[in-house]
Amino acid sequence: MILFSRNRRLRTNESIRSLIRETRLSTDDLVMPMFIIEGKNKKETIPSMPYIFRRSIDLAVEECKELYHLGIKAVNLYTKVPEELKDNTGKEGWNRDGLMQRAIKSIKDSVPDMVVMPDIALDPYSIFGHDGIIKNGKIDNDSTNIVLAKMAVSLAEAGADIVAPSDMMDGRVGIIREALEKNHYTEVGILSYSAKYASSFYGPFRSALDSAPKEINDIPRDKKTYQMDYHNSREALTEVYRDVEEGADIIMIKPGLPYLDIVSKVREVIDLPLGVYNVSGEYAMLKAAVQNGWLDNDLAIIESLTCIKRAGGDIIFTYAAKEAALLLDN
Ligand code: PBG
Predict the structure, then answer these.
(1) Fewer CB within a 10 Å sphere, N or C end of the chain?
(2) Considering the entire predicted model, what is its pTM?
(3) How far is the CA of 205 from the centre of ligand 1 (A)?
(4) How far apart are CA 225 and CA 170, in angstroms?
């Protein structure tokens, strides 16, 4: 039989395969999310996230030095604050001496070239565990935006390079941009979680920060009134277009692996850098399978992250960033 086309010709050995490879994963693509706690020399494990820790600022700084040495040049910061600092307004979020502000400053002082991207949202600071202020049993969009803008200015003052609003309030990118401009933080960028879905895959993250929505009277138990409905795809474009108009510098899709159709669709129409968040539940699933001996850790990590890049992600937020950097280096 004469076959004119045999696709396997270009798969015969690794040299040929690497010659025609369309996507290359690099440590440059990766951002490491980190959880910060109060104290000194503290490192706490998170049961649903093996090998991920909550660290006090001093140890977070040490970790940043190591990450930078491995080629990871950006970290995304989250704080776990003591219960007594939480209220309905999230005011701890813009405390000049708050945990986040001190963490940013310490990391920038020790590793100045590390891109520091703190999260912006109320959930770690909210008694209700919501990303916004509760008014009449609802998450109030407009009063929340005012607080988010204050947080952004405070984080910029602490030295943040890029602020990362993950709250999904309408109009917050524009309001944050305006506040940064007015306060002369013209070079602080905004990475907007533009299409963030109400997802069950955030479970391990919420236990890491103790930030899950609380079971209180008529307060919603989920985030479906502000995060997106996972049945929808076109709606992601509406969200993304709005954030671009409002001045976002980078946009983000979240979660990652189950949402690669959204990533690829957004990539087709948007020219800004595109972030993808390989979230805590995705990490937990992989590690659980590895612990059972059902998946090869190293292969599964590199394949997952490469597929996110293939779908169109430029910047990948992943808890496996450090492991991937070590693997890519070999
Ligand atoms: C909250 C926030 C969440 C994540 C990042 N920022 C959780 C949520 O929306 O409830 C999830 C990240 C992850 O699961 O890894 N503003």
Answers:
(1) N
(2) 0.97
(3) 6
(4) 11
